[in-house]
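Regression check, zinc ion case 625:
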Amino acid sequence: MIYKFSTLLLLCVTFFSSEINAQNNTIEYKTDQYWQQQADYTMAIDMDVNTYQFTGKQNIEYTNNSPDDLNRVYYHLFFNAFQPGSEMDARLQSIKDPDGRMVTNLGTKENPIYESRISKLKDDEIGFIKVSSFKLNGKKLNYEIEGTVMIVDLETPIKAGETVDFDMKFVGQVPEQIRRSGRNNKEGVALSMTQWYPKLAEYDTEGWHADPYIGREFYGVWGNFDVKITIDKDYIIGGTGNLQNADKIGYGYISEEKVKKKRGKTNTWHFVAPNVHDFTWAADKDYIHDTMQVPNGPMLHFLYKKDLPQENLENWKKMQPKTVELMQYFSEHIGKYPYDQYSVIQGGDGGMEYAMSTLITGKRSYGSLVGVTAHELAHTWFQFLLATNESKHEWMDEGFTSYISTLAMDEIMDYKKENPLSRSYAGYIRLANSGNEQPLTTHADRYAINSAYSASAYSKGAVFISQLGYIIGDENLKATIKKYYNDFVFKHPKPMDIVRTAERVSGLELDWYLIDFGQTTNTIDYAVKSVEDNKVTLERIGLMPMPIDLSVTYVDGSTEDFYIPLRMMRGTKQTSSTIKNDWAWAYPTYTFETSKAVQSVQIDPRGLMADVKPDNNVYSIAKED
Ligand SMILES: [Zn+2]
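Current build output:
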């Protein structure tokens, strides 16, 4: 237990005294005012490529922009997850459908017996971060470590508005590659260094977020990074930040004739990354390093192993101009990429997004290689620049990314699908009908099964934003995404922020949409109940309200599109359809008349509303023989 009684008591006292202040009208700040913390990192790392151990010195200049005095801070020590008995290990052993990369199947495909790979790690294969010295403003501090979280109780609180210095020395060991990070991944990349350094937890308007590392993703403090990595001279590094001393390093970061290599067995790589909330790198002796300039944009770096099969090497070349197009697509449709470089690096265990970079596995077909790059690059906007808390709002991370990367792929690969998002809709609808759905408000680590997490975060999340376009109109959705970027870039937006942005752009009331689709498992099920001559009756069977797009085919063969507004939206979207009277949610049925006799009716012909029972959306009067 870490919550000591005295701390609880202190919290209670603070709480009551602010209550009293509120009654006396002496509140000094508005509770709804936005602020965010700032953590500027300076790190010097010394990596031993033979033992996979590294030593680090870290200084964090931490500014408490919150209105609160902080009595405690937390650090993440992510590498500690890769130890037998960790929470990550325990979760692997208890979840029904563990991540295939993290377990060994000792049974058969039909009757699997999973063994956690973490449970089998030996001492020299585990991951760890051991803190050897820790100071605040030069004064030694005590700390406690609980798994992947370090808890620091402060004798003197960090006052609201104050800037302090944390200094830490640590020793780390890079684990066998189990998930995301690690040594010698299955394609032989030596070092995938993600979530590898002691990382200050974020404190925001919703308090501390010192989530243990159990499986899912991350949240961090905005700041500037200055990182020096000393490593064996044969290793080539790619990752976050701009290389400051390319002239001493070479390896494709500068033209060879300008390189003045230093003597000795190691290189010290110096990276600077402005305004990010993470720092990632990967290193290998056998990287090929290509670059490609995005016109009016960043320099792209591609690092991939020379020993890839010929076909894969060709794919890595072919995807480079496509990455330029992707960068341009996202910059145009969301907002301009603000950094000077972006690196696509072979490493990790699939595809994972980081600051100014991604680590992806390299042995992929061309379509898969471009697809994974599209997805991970899109994450630069949704969750990196628009830095939602991925643990709490996983759907704003994976869902919005899936949405925009699917559209980008459709365009740059010329797929021209009728509804590029149809797989997301199908995935969500399958989940909603499966009985396994949990609301999108579920913490990313606490879905009962992994497949329900994926369908929620990726599919329902993508549907959330696509369906928002159905509700407010395509042009309003495009404007909403751009305004959302402009208003929340380099911040920590929350679900209400995307919905309020859509309200501001469209003038429509939308809080019901976030409530029903984003906070409950209510489903959409509308049906055509009856058609009699020129009278159409619709029925709302599901609990969730929606406005209705509907297409009618008349007996004479002509067609007409109708739009039935939802009363609680207090307005209509832009549409060329015939607008009927609005439908107030509480009425289970709705009848309207048309000008001619009706042959058939179809609700939502574009398939943009996630109706979980689409069969009853179509109604056709049997033709007489
Ligand atoms: Zn993703």
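Comparison notes: Residues 375, 379, 398, 401 surround zinc ion (CB under 6 Å). Residues 449 and 592 are 44 Å apart (CA to CA). No diff flagged against the previous build.
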